[in-house]
Amino acid sequence: MMTAKAEAAPNIAFIKYWGNRVDILRIPLNSSISMNLGGLSTQTTVCFDDSLETDVVNINQQPATAEAARRVSEFIDIVRSLAGLTTCAKVSSWNNFPMGSGIASSAAAFAALSLAASKAAGLNLDESELSRLARRGSGSACRSIPAGIVEWHAGDRDENSFAEQLAAPEYWDLVDCLAVVNEGHKRVGSSDGHRLSYSSPLQELRVSDSVIRFNQCRQAILTRDFESLADVIEQDSNLMHSVMNTSRPELVYWNEVTLTVIQEVIHMRKKGLEAAFTIDAGPNVHVITVNKSLQAVKRHLESIAGVLRIVVAPVGREARYIEVDGDPS
Ligand code: PMV
Predict the structure, then answer these.
(1) 224-233 per-position pLDDT tens digit
(2) N or C: which end of the chain has fewer CB within 10 A?
(3) Best residue among 11, 12, 18, 34 to mutate for probing ligand 1, ranked by most atoms within 8 Å of CB
(4) How would you classify the pairing of strands 2-8 and 11-15?
């Protein structure tokens, strides 16, 4: 038996990934930037065991759905082929945050799985190799491998499409104040969403000038310029949601509270508070702020009718191995 355990944080994209150039390899159409979410994590244990006849996948101590188990098995197949193994695996994964509603649970899940599965299979991958592997499970997972604020170079093939650190966690005290407005599962997952993105006439436009926004975002982070960061992340999020809204069939992730929170964030910024919104494939609103404005931003968000709760996350660390002894279960 070969066992390894790892932990990874989810991430929130500042410049979004939406649409693949090569779907099967998850090579994206544009480069993206994100921040790891500290305090939130997925812990995953992988055990290759000769006595198993099929892969066994448990998530939060429950057997995974057939769909989730298939996706994990296909991913383990990639690791098996890299390591020259045929053994089945037991995968046990545990999340300390709600799945499927705007916190990118698949990013943390596949980042942790990449580390645990490759280590258990006897592979010793470096950071960029791990990031490339994680990308195969879920594109955004490649950004949960390095620490802090991370850039994913789109590249055009497997070898050059991976993420690396742009700024260490302590470089800038950004905080994500996530306003949860719906805890349910998203109806259309991002894998299908990426495929649908081509059906929007706005996608080509979004992709063609994404380099401008990528560079502005990069610069804003390196110079700790909150105003410029707010300007670019809100536009980039609005552009991705405009593509979603104009796909066929349309993908509408927002609800009425999402819109109220957006308006309140714009209002807070006009009053001089550091606050900027960005939204992934769900209705929840990530409000990016800095430590000194955190309490005021949090209080304001809590006062909005329909906001269920606030999850606060500073800039998070890298995916890492955890020592284990014995069986994962
Ligand atoms: O990694 P995926 O396939 O779950 O796609 C993530 C897509 C967004 O979260 C909406 C944007 C992003 O860049 O994370």
Answers:
(1) 999 999 999 9
(2) C
(3) 18
(4) unpaired
CA dihedral 303, 314, 14, 75 (to 10 degrees): -120
How many whole angstroms from 320 Cα to the centroid of ligand 1?
Answer: 21
Shared domain for 140 and 178, answered yes or no, is no
324 within domain boundaries: no
Sign of the torsion formed by the C-alpha atoms of 193, 29, 111 and 8: negative
The confidence band for 100, taking pLDDT boundaries of 50, 70 and 90, is: very low
Torsion of CA 133, 134, 136, 139, to 10 degrees: -140
Note down the domain range covering 194.
174-314
Instruction: Please tell me the distance from the alpha carbon of residue 258 to that of residue 78, in angstroms, as a whole number.
Output: 38
Count of structural domains, the chain: 2
pLDDT tens digits for range 225-264: 999 999 999 999 999 999 999 999 999 999 999 999 999 9
Asked whether the beta carbons of 156 and 166 are under 8 A apart, the reply is no
16 and 155, same domain (yes or no): yes
What residues have CB less than 8 Å from 195, skipping those under 6 apart?
20, 23
127 and 75 share a domain?
yes
State the Cα–Cα distance between residues 82 and 86, nearest whole angstrom. 11
CA nearest to 134, candidates 319, 322, 321: 319
**Overall average pLDDT of the 134-146 stretch:** 98
CA of 13 to the centre of ligand 1 (A): 8
Q: Is 281 in the pocket of ligand 1 (CB under 6 A)?
A: yes
Distance CA 319, CA 310 (A): 24
Peptide linkage before 169 cis (omega within 30 of 0): no
d(CA 87, CA 25) in angstroms, rounded, equals 24
Q: What is the value of pTM for the model shown?
A: 0.96
Q: Tell me the residue type at 43.
A: Q
